[in-house]
């Protein structure tokens, strides 16, 4: 049995903290769903158990040919299976450990304070999305990769063009342009000395793992696409969650030691990453009584798996005191996002610094949502503070 869904833009009345109705229907019915993306049929799996299957079982490949995905590129490790995938992950592993993320926490706090200085200067009614939720991750990501503000802004604009494109041909053309620009940056960094990630990716001598220009460009592009926009949207979404749930904000203020729980709960509860990276089935597999055939595209629904009652009791309740439990916000399996630890630090610092700086900060109007196919988050987040 399967459930057909054809949602593109979620309905206008959708709750800002709800998963898509079509995805919920798949989860609640215990089925596998399907829908067309750019005219190509995709199977959708929603339950946590099924998401784990699709992201761990070698019968579902990230490297198999697919008419949906652009041509395979050197270094694009999100489109690779083991063992090829592992070589590139090992190259960057040291930059994305929990220890490395914690070392950057002071820098993240300084960057957050700089953003909040400008927000305070702008006065009540300011929009936190451009000046804080987007700017703060950009500052941190640029520092991580060794990008100038101008280089970071150009890459960010090109990524927005790709993710905002309405047809597959445009996506492929814009992706080619993006890779060409990233390749020029990599080649320029080869002639410079530096300890940041992009310089080391471009370095021809780095122990046992040396990357070509094209490989370094592919790794760099994979990291940017996997983490840049999604982290910006998640920071804004987390701020919105706490601003619109005063009882949870109060619990966190009363018990700051809950901050790690709060971050994990927001990652679980907020459906920012509605659809995972597609896999291609390489041999016939039966899932929930549905025959998924070799060559079929399959998408794991991460946000929906995070609402699976078999794993998370009362899954539609936002509770910062919920015991820590592994969630699917960063994916699952070997392709789990390498930047998960720095993303957690960004969310933690962004929330704590905002509420420390403006203890009475509150929403100052309706919050329109970005309701695209993949990511879901606040488009604006206007706030005020001080006397009512």
Automatic annotation (TrEMBL):
PROSITE patterns linked to this entry: CYTOCHROME_P450 (PS00086)
Keyword Heme among record annotations: yes
Keyword Heme: yes
PANTHER family noted in UniProt: CYTOCHROME P450 YJIB-RELATED, P450, PUTATIVE (EUROFUNG)-RELATED
Family from the record: Belongs to the cytochrome P450 family.
UniProtKB keywords: Heme, Iron, Metal-binding, Monooxygenase, Oxidoreductase
Domain of life: Bacteria
Gene Ontology MF terms in the entry: heme binding; iron ion binding; monooxygenase activity; oxidoreductase activity, acting on paired donors, with incorporation or reduction of molecular oxygen
InterPro entries, A to Z: Cyt_P450, Cyt_P450_B, Cyt_P450_CS, Cyt_P450_sf
Protein name: FkbD
């Amino acid at each position: 049995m399967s459930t057909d869904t054809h949602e593109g833009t979620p309905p206008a009345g959708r709750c800002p903290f709800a998963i898509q109705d079509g995805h919920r229907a798949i989860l609640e019915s215990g089925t596998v769903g399907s829908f067309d993306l750019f005219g190509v049929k995709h199977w959708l799996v929603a339950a946590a158990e099924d998401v784990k299957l699709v992201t761990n079982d070698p019968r579902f490949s990230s490297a198999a040919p697919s008419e949906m995905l652009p041509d395979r590129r050197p270094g694009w490790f999100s489109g690779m299976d083991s063992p090829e995938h592992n070589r590139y992950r090992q190259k960057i592993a040291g930059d994305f450990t929990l220890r490395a993320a914690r070392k950057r926490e002071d820098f993240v706090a300084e960057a957050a304070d700089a953003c909040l200085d400008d927000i305070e200067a702008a006065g009540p009614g300011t929009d936190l999305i451009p000046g804080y939720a987007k700017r703060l991750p950009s500052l941190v990501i640029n520092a991580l990769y060794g990008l100038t503000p101008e280089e970071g802004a150009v890459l960010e604009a090109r990524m927005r063009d790709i993710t905002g494109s309405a047809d597959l041909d445009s996506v492929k053309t814009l992706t080619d342009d993006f890779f060409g620009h990233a390749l020029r940056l990599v080649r320029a960094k080869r002639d410079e000395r530096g300890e940041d990630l992009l310089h080391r990716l471009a370095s021809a001598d780095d122990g046992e793992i040396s990357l070509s220009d094209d490989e370094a460009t592919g790794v760099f592009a994979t990291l940017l696409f996997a983490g840049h926009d999604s982290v910006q949207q998640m920071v804004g979404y987390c701020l919105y969650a706490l601003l619109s749930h005063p009882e949870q904000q109060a619990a966190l203020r009363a018990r700051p030691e809950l901050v790690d729980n709060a971050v994990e709960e927001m990652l679980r509860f907020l459906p920012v990453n509605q659809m995972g990276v597609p896999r291609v089935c390489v041999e016939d597999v039966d899932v929930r009584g549905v025959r998924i055939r070799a060559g079929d595209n399959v998408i794991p629904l991460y946000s929906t798996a995070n609402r699976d009652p078999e794993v998370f009791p009362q899954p539609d309740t936002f509770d910062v005191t919920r015991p820590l439990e592994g969630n699917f916000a960063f994916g699952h399996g070997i392709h789990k996002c390498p930047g998960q630890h720095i993303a957690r630090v960004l969310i933690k610092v962004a929330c704590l610094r905002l509420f420390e700086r403006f203890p009475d900060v509150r929403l100052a109007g309706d919050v329109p949502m970005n309701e695209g196919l993949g990511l879901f988050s606040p488009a604006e987040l206007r706030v005020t503070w001080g006397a009512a």
